Amino acid sequence: MGEQILNQVVWPVIYILCIVLPLVIGVALYVWWERKVLGWMHVRMGPNKIGPFGLLQAFADVVKLLLKEVILPTNASKALYYMAPLIALVPALAAWAVVPFNDGLVLANVNAGVLYLLAMTSLGVYGIILAGWASNSRYALLGAMRSAAQVISYELAMGLCLVSVLVLAGSLNLTDIVHAQAGSKGIFGWFMWPLLPVFIIYFISGVAETNRAPFDVAEGESEIVAGFHVEYSGSAFALFFLAEYANMILVSFLASILFMGGWLSPFPASWGLLGHDGFLWLFAKVFLFAFMFLWFRASFPRYRYDQIMRLGWKVFIPITIAWVLVAGCMKYFGWVTVGTGG
Amino acid sequence: MIDPQMFQLVCFYAFAAVTVVAALGVVTLRNTVHAVLALVLTFFSTACIWLLAEAEFLAIALIVVYVGAVMVLFLFVVMMLDINQEHLREGFIKFLPVGIIVALIMLGEMLGLIGVRAMHQQVMGANPATVAGMSNTEWLGQALYTQFLLPFEIAALILTVGVVAAVVLTLRHRTGVRHQKASQQVLVNARDRIRVVKMAAVAPAAPQPAPGKETTP
Fold first, then answer.
1. Phi-psi category of B178—alpha, beta or left, where left has phi over 0 and alpha has psi -120 to 50?
2. Which reaction does it catalyse (chain A) (predicted)?
3. Do A307 and B56 touch (CB under 8 A)?
């Protein structure tokens, strides 16, 4: 009995903490890095007062948010108002269960991993919609409406991108998908080459799914103040913040795993330490994508709402549907060989 | 030791209870948004029950399609409805007999169906996925794309026809609407839009204020 509880309850909880705690610290550092990068791109300093290089700024902000009062607007739907941040955060954290960090280093090595990810990422939008509705505020409701339409549109493109990957890899398991990109061809065995348009569309859809600039119409601070979280303060707002950044890091991880070979090294194995596969390579790729999120934010003006819809429905979805067919042909006619035998 | 079978049974009843309570909530809650959320919970706990039955593909598909997309659209529409909550219950007594009759007929039909099934005594075969040594998702994919390819494609075609029909039914050609053509917009050069005029610099004619007399406001 005691051993069973240890194996089925205690160890999984420790494993989960091993993922969630670094994730939360990573979010704090990511926020710091975002403010630094934006500062440099605007020819400013960014945060530089608290701690070395301003590193403790994000932690100071967390303490500030946690100490603030959570305000409940008049006539707000109380239960849903308090539940919405949790509904946003829970899928954002739950999705990490199937993300492999290295060969065999994964919390749940499930066969339907990609499907599970799709399910979890599609749930996150409820937090935003409910926050917008329960706040009893015009701005928040507008933000929720925009977010709902946008997320549904881009989820389709994102799902079809995944289908192309699945067709080539022949598996729904994320570890197997990385294995399918290994082989003698090294960097050219990665799925980003045969699936280049899909790869680009996947990342752009990921930016849209996480409501980040230039697709941040759900917040749109210059149009609708702060969108769905305009009424939230203190720790409730912090939870939304955490969910958004956790999702951004998740999209970066998925783009690295699905298209850029995950923990595989881009160099041939004969290059010694550089050619050694490992989670450091995965983190380097993730850092690249996470940086691109910030780069986009600093570079592009916000898309107009109808332009977002046009891009999603009339450009991305047709291209991804066509590429599913192309990927099928690649697989069927053997234009692309996958796995170590390739 | 915790018996896995027992644990599974407890989980089944827990999920089933949540499903039934949530389904009751769908029809009894006054607030329409709350009712839609109860429906979401119904779908979610149904998916959990299917997971217990090792039908993981159906369970996740239910969440992706219904919870993740269809119910979001429902919520989208319901949130924009301007419903007077007091008027909602007005016809309750009037329509109650009709509702009860429909419910009774449905109950009778379902009991009849269950009875016919029970009389045939169809014994369920072993789970074909387990027999083939594959995961549920893999087996379903193999069956759909080999054995049942034609029905599958026909179903896809029918759904596509439905999409096209919905678009055609709701499409209204309005006159006087100015559309943007993005394909033309991106082809525009700066030269088409602005003209750069070279002008000689003109010295300012305004008199310089005398030094030393400046005062700060």
1. beta
2. a quinone + NADH + 5 H(+)(in) = a quinol + NAD(+) + 4 H(+)(out)
3. no
CA A311, CA A80: separation in Å to the nearest integer? 33
Q: Which of B8, B30, B65, B75 to mutate to test the interface with A (most CBs of A within 10 A)?
A: B75
Residues A95 and A148 placed together within one structural domain of the fold = yes
Q: Which residues contact B167 (CB under 8 A, 6 or more apart)?
A: none
| pLDDT (tens digit per residue) in A106-124 | 777 777 788 888 888 888 8
Which residue numbers of B have CB closer than 8 Å to A's CBs?
1-2, 31, 33, 37, 40, 56-57, 60-61, 63-64, 67-69, 72-73, 75-76, 79-80, 135, 137-138, 182
- Predicted local distance difference test score (pLDDT) of residue B106: 92
Is residue A313 helix, strand or coil?
Answer: helix
In this structure, which topology does domain B1-90 adopt according to CATH? Four Helix Bundle (Hemerythrin (Met), subunit A) (1.20.120)
**A131: nearest CA in chain B?**
B79
Q: Does A111 contact B137 at a Cβ distance shorter than 8 Å? A: yes
Q: Which residues contact A317 (CB under 8 A, 6 or more apart)?
A: A156, A157, A160
Smallest Cβ–Cβ distance between A122 and the set B2, B64, B75 belongs to: B64
**Residue with token string 């305009």:** A230
pLDDT digits (tens, 9 = 90+) for A269-304: 777 777 777 788 888 889 999 999 899 988 888 888
Tell me if A134 sits within 8 A of A86, measured CB to CB. no
Of A93-102, A251-260, B110-119, B141-150, the poorest mean pLDDT is in B110-119
**Token pair listed for A167:** 């067709």
Same domain, A277 and A209: yes
Reduced to 3 states, what is the DSSP secondary structure of residue A102? strand
pLDDT > 70? residue A253: yes
Is residue A75 pLDDT above 80, yes or no?
no
Closest chain B residue to A3, measured at CA? B1
- pLDDT tens by residue, chain B, 217 residues: 567 788 888 888 999 999 999 998 888 887 888 888 899 999 989 998 988 887 888 888 888 888 888 888 888 788 777 666 656 666 677 788 888 899 899 999 988 888 877 777 666 677 777 777 777 788 888 888 888 999 999 999 999 999 999 989 988 888 888 877 878 888 888 888 888 888 888 877 776 666 665 555 5
Same domain (yes/no): A51, A158: no
Between A and B, how many CB-CB pairs are < 8 A? 72
> Is residue A185 domain-shared with residue A91, that is, in the same domain?
yes
Total number of residues shown for chain B: 217
Alpha-carbon separation of residue B51 from B9, B57, B142, B143 (angstroms): 13, 8, 20, 20
Query: In chain B, what are the domain boundaries?
Result: 1-90, 128-169
SS3 A244: helix
- DSSP secondary structure code for residue B199 in this structure: -
